[in-house]
Design a protein that fits this description.
Number of domains: 3
Low-confidence stretches: none
Number of helices: 13
CATH class of the largest domain: Alpha Beta
Strand content: 15-25%
Shape: elongated
Radius of gyration: 25 Å
Largest sheet: 10 strands, mixed
Structural class: alpha/beta
CATH topology of the largest domain: Rossmann fold
Length: 464
């Protein structure tokens, strides 16, 4: 029988201190009862005969005298079964869709277990998102972690919803775990409506932590989502895409709890362990040699003041394998999705594209489009000084290529889905606006097979 402790020593923000405790363990879940209402908390610090408890539902109505606390002896466990697909859960993994509780076939610690690096399988093959600027130039590889760097007011939520609706692996058992942290009510409703109306909700598990939910709950939300993903991937042998938005909200919740614990702050007030904490989430992506399933991550984060050197994007870039960067300049031009090509990259792309994966010409097309658009940026900088009329004939062609590239390749409506074949064909059509002598990143064999000089804008519009 578990002991019940009456009263608290101290209440400080989302934290309470419980004294006279025996046999407590770090990360242990405690049940807190006051006025007949139960709350859950987690032990985050142990002292000689006391412990600090992080209360998930907030401490507003707790009392120092009549609060009753019981130690459960276990870390937080997530109930799991195949019935979890198609469900909408809150930030603590509890169903909020009115369909009843989940019948648990298994229960797992949400903190997970570290994957032995020797047991990992190298990520191969790709996940098609249906978005040309991602599939063609920053291809998402199965088992990869590829973050999206965005900014306040940019359409990352719309892009996230589009990826969920369109992402697929041909002929494979595929699912999406969608984790939203600190989102407003209208954004949460947009996600629910979008997935329901498009008919993809049956292959999605949604976890929603709203902006008015307790900050502490935000810290466990991604861990609940990743525990679900691990069950789907390594028990049910599915290929799982995990989308987590917004990691900046998560990091700010971590900062708030760290401040309540009076820990010495690091850059921008974030705790010094922010790097290892983010790594404990991101490194739960991957594939195992003796398992069929895979976990692929797309963490989405907003960069305060569009500062890519801010601690959250900066540390994320160290841990993950590339990034997709949304740009305000393209957004102001009305381009959606406003993916800025040059700072975006996928470090594992080379190992999951080409013959046997996408198409033989994919690596060369991607390299040539990158190189040509980089040349466009240089010429635009020159034109800003001397004017477009003073540019050479070939520079004028590049200026035209740049406009068409943004209008037809990057720009894509949220209802438009392009397969890999369409994306690569569109790339060749665009390259047809440049003389063949300018295609210095392509093999002569591929030029002879695919290149069509003098392409016109009508072909681009049709995507053929």
């Amino acid at each position: 029988m578990k002991l019940e402790y009456i009263g608290l020593e101290n209440i400080d923000g989302p934290l309470v201190v419980l004294s006279g405790v025996k046999g407590a363990k770090n990360e242990e879940i405690v049940e807190i009862t006051v006025a007949g209402k139960k709350k859950l908390g987690k032990i985050i610090e142990l002292r000689e005969d006391a412990c600090v408890v992080q209360v998930f539902e907030g401490t507003r109505d707790l009392s120092l005298t009549n609060t009753r606390t019981k130690l459960t002896g276990n870390p937080m466990m997530m109930p799991l079964s195949e019935e979890i697909l198609g469900r909408i859960l809150n930030g603590r993994g509890k169903p909020i869709d009115g369909l009843g509780d989940i019948y648990a076939k298994d229960k797992r610690d949400i903190n997970g277990m570290p994957i032995n690096p020797v047991a990992r399988k190298y990520p191969r093959d790709y996940i098609q998102t249906g978005i040309s600027s991602i599939d063609g130039l920053t291809t998402l590889i199965r088992g990869q972690k590829l973050p999206i760097f965005s900014g306040n007011g940019l359409p990352h939520n719309k892009l996230a919803a589009q990826i969920v609706k369109q992402a697929k692996i041909a002929g494979e058992n595929f699912a999406v775990v969608f984790v939203a942290m600190g989102v407003k009510y209208d954004v949460a409703e947009y996600f629910k409506r979008s997935f329901t109306e498009s008919g993809v909700l049956e292959k999605v598990v949604m976890l929603l932590n709203l902006a008015n939910d307790p900050v502490v709950e935000r810290i466990i939300t991604p861990r609940c989502g990743l525990t679900i993903a691990e069950y789907l991937a390594f028990t049910l042998k599915m290929h799982v895409l995990v989308i987590m938005t917004d990691m900046t909200s998560y990091a700010e919740a971590l900062r708030e709890v760290s401040s309540s614990k009076n820990e010495i702050p690091s850059r921008k007030g974030f705790p010094g362990y922010l790097y290892s904490d983010l790594a404990s989430l991101y490194e739960r992506a991957g594939m195992l040699k003796d398992q069929e399933g895979s976990i692929t991550q797309i963490p989405i984060l907003t960069m305060p003041n569009d500062d890519i050197t801010h601690p959250v994007p900066d540390l994320t870039a160290y841990i993950t394998e590339g990034q997709i960067v949304l740009g305000r300049e393209l957004f102001q031009k009305g381009v959606y999705p406003p993916i800025t090509i040059l700072p975006s990259l996928s470090r594992l792309m080379k190992d999951g594209i080409g013959e046997g994966f996408t198409r033989e010409d994919h690596p060369d097309v991607a390299n040539q489009l990158f190189a040509s658009f980089a040349r466009v940026q240089e010429i635009r900088a020159l034109a800003a000084v001397i004017g477009e009329d003073e540019l050479s004939e070939i520079d004028q062609l590049y200026i035209r290529f740049g406009k068409l590239f943004e209008k037809y390749f990057i720009a894509q409506s949220e209802d438009e889905e392009r397969d890999m074949e369409q994306t690569l064909t569109l790339g060749w059509t665009l390259l047809g606006f440049l003389p063949v002598a300018e295609l210095d990143r392509m093999s002569p064999k591929l030029i002879e097979k695919y290149y069509k000089a003098g392409s016109n804008e009508r072909l681009l519009y049709k995507g053929i």
